[in-house]
Design brief:
Layout: H1 2-17, E1 22-24, E2 30-32, H2 39-48, H3 55-65, H4 69-93, H5 98-122, H6 129-147
Antiparallel strand pairs: 1-2
């Protein structure tokens, strides 16, 4: 009977607090679910933390295992799926200024990093694992660099 009362009270509390963005993660301790002011950058941080598209984890695993066939096509597709879509969306959300200009340069560097990985593994039987890994590490560094850009000011109107 006590369990039912606790369960019912918890459900009622969740129902009443849900409109305010309060969610419960186990037990009765509420945690405020706060959306970032710049969710476009959250997607980039998620990728770096392994919670995004999974592209970085996929590439790292394939490079470690020496499984290059899938990686050749993947690098081309990920340039569209991540660099153009995710980084491009973040760049366009930024107010005009030096950080937005730098975002263009870093996004372009991501393309060249992916090309570098692709070139290093392109020749079947003559793959250069060390060079591919070097380009992968540069790719991660560039994405981390992009994630450090801090948009300030008002959001620009949608393009």
């Amino acid at each position: 009977e006590r369990r039912d009362a606790v369960r019912d009270a918890t459900r009622e509390l969740r129902r009443r607090l849900a409109p305010f963005g309060v969610v419960f993660f186990g037990g009765l301790q509420p945690s405020l679910a706060v959306a970032s002011e710049w969710p476009e950058f959250d997607a980039i941080r998620d990728e770096l933390e392994g919670k995004g598209t999974g592209g970085l984890a996929f590439m790292q695993t394939r490079l470690e295992r020496g499984e290059y066939a899938e990686l050749l096509e993947f690098t081309k597709q990920w340039d569209l799926d991540f660099r153009k879509a995710v980084l491009g969306k973040a760049r366009k959300a930024m107010p005009k200024g030096p950080d937005r200009d730098r975002a263009v340069l870093v996004a372009n560097a991501v393309t060249f990093d992916l090309i570098g990985i692709n070139k290093a593994i392109r020749a079947t039987g003559k793959e250069d694992a060390a060079e591919a890994k070097r380009w992968f590490n540069t790719l991660v560094d560039d994405i981390q660099d992009f994630a450090t850009l801090q948009p300030t000011g008002a959001r620009p109107p949608p393009e």
